[in-house]
Amino acid sequence: MEQMQFSGKDSSFIELLNVLSVLKFIDENNLHEAAHVLLKLDRRSKKFPELETLRPAVLTLAGQQSMEQDEAACASEFWQLLQREQPFNPQLAVNLVRVLDDNEDYQELQRLLTRLIKWLEQDFKQHPQNWTEQGRQTTLAYAHCRLADTWMALGRGRAALGELQTAERIYPGSPEVIGRRGLVAAQENRHDEATRLLSQALEEGCRSAEVYIVLIETWKKLGNSEAMLDARRRFGKKFGDLNIIADVEVLPWIDALSTRQYDLFSDLVEGGSKLDPAMRACQIFVNATEGDPNSGGNVSLQQTQAVSHWDELLKGLSPQEQVPTLQAIALCLLLFAKREKGIAALITQYRVQLYELGDQQPEAKAAHLVILSLKERDPKKLKIPFQAYLGSQPQPGNALAQIQLQVRRYTQTSSQAQILRSFIEESLNREPQNPLLILAKATTYPQNSSNYETFRQQGFEIARRLQDAKALQAFREEEAFLKTQDVQQFSLVPQLLRTSGWRIWMVSWKT
Q1: Residue 478: pLDDT above 70?
Q2: Best CA proximity match to 119, nearest among 100, 81, 93, 80
Q3: Residues pairing with 289 in the sheet
Q4: Exposure string (b/e) for 402-412, b if CB count within 10 Å is 16 or more?
Q5: Does the structure show a pLDDT above 50 at 30?
Q6: pLDDT grade for 271, boundaries at 50, 70 and 90
Q7: Is residue 29 part of a domain?
Q8: Residue 377 — φ and ψ, nearest 5°?
Q9: 100, 109 in Cβ contact below 8 A?
Q10: Do residues 390 and 399 lie in contact, with contact meaning Cβ atoms separated by under 8 Å?
Q11: What does the angle CA 48 – CA 49 – CA 50 come to, to the nearest 5 degrees?
Q12: More confident residue, 45 or 421
């Protein structure tokens, strides 16, 4: 080595250093770095033929190591080189499909999937003994479905539908095909068909995260929180939906009103579903406002316009649907309308309608008391209606606590927050170990106060000791509410799920 008289600029010397670096990294089992250095070497050089022999193995293992190190871009580089330099390797192609998908490199992914499908078709003909009929259909239909996904991500709706139709001809009963048909139905607003197909696909083993996400979004759009929760419980684990508060789902209209900030409320409402009557009531309010909010965050309302649309909306609803819709109307007026002439009368009008539904829909009674608690400033005026309601309940303490936990979502002042405190304390004298009541008492204090934290912790310990499922659920909901409030303090608007191909409207193939 000492006899080699190479200058620092000599290409042969640099080449030798790179070769030594490759060998050193291989010896250290650092294939990732070895591959990067290997790619610096000129393949036309014939000085180190052994390295050319090692090249496929180094690039293969380097790609695997890169994936383990969350360096998907490097894995993509190494494996794409291999695909170009070596005979087609189906296992490598399958690995590269995942990498390209993760990197959102859809153009390369489309080319690779097309090549993989051609290889499969040839292999079926050349080696039929290696495939059962079921295996052939399942594999090829899945490959065409993945290609359909990729075309959609590229904005090529017509090509995507063509691939889906091909997959359907090959294996119409494939869960992957059924799932993609459900995605198309969801985009075309055929919601009943969409939820049926998407659920069926997941039940039968569909592997598409998109199918799961769109099912959840569709249930949410329809305002069916029970079905949405059921879908998350049944299918969520498979797709990484493991949130510790996954069972805490707040209806979008409640979520919007709970912001207690008109600008954020209006943003959330404008992006909400028109299929949910309560959300539609909120949208009517926003559309009927005029001017900017005042310093208190309240806006002027074109009352005639709003009332006309609200009354028309209510006419087409069942008594069950009217309950949340009337509650949403009253809350919009209470929280965000300027106290102009006629507003107080409107609040009373819709509150009374809610009260009158109580005989047909028991939940209307509690909803009415929530509105009344937010409207009144004197607890004495609440005593008679609360006594009448709680006297009819099998668990009056829990019933009172549930009302307070709803009231706390919408309170804008400390006096509103503590309007029911005396009733709660009276109930606690009778049920001192009721964790739900203790949590309700905590929420009558500011969130950053020692009283709030003391009572919340006390109630939680009792609920955990008693394994009180309803109370523990209430504590999870309270925790979720606090986290949402923290986000709002930094003026962050909730992010939508990442838009992907199948959730883009099919403008490209319709036009």
Answers
A1: yes
A2: 93
A3: 301
A4: bbbbbbbbbbe
A5: yes
A6: confident
A7: yes
A8: -110, -15
A9: yes
A10: yes
A11: 90
A12: 421
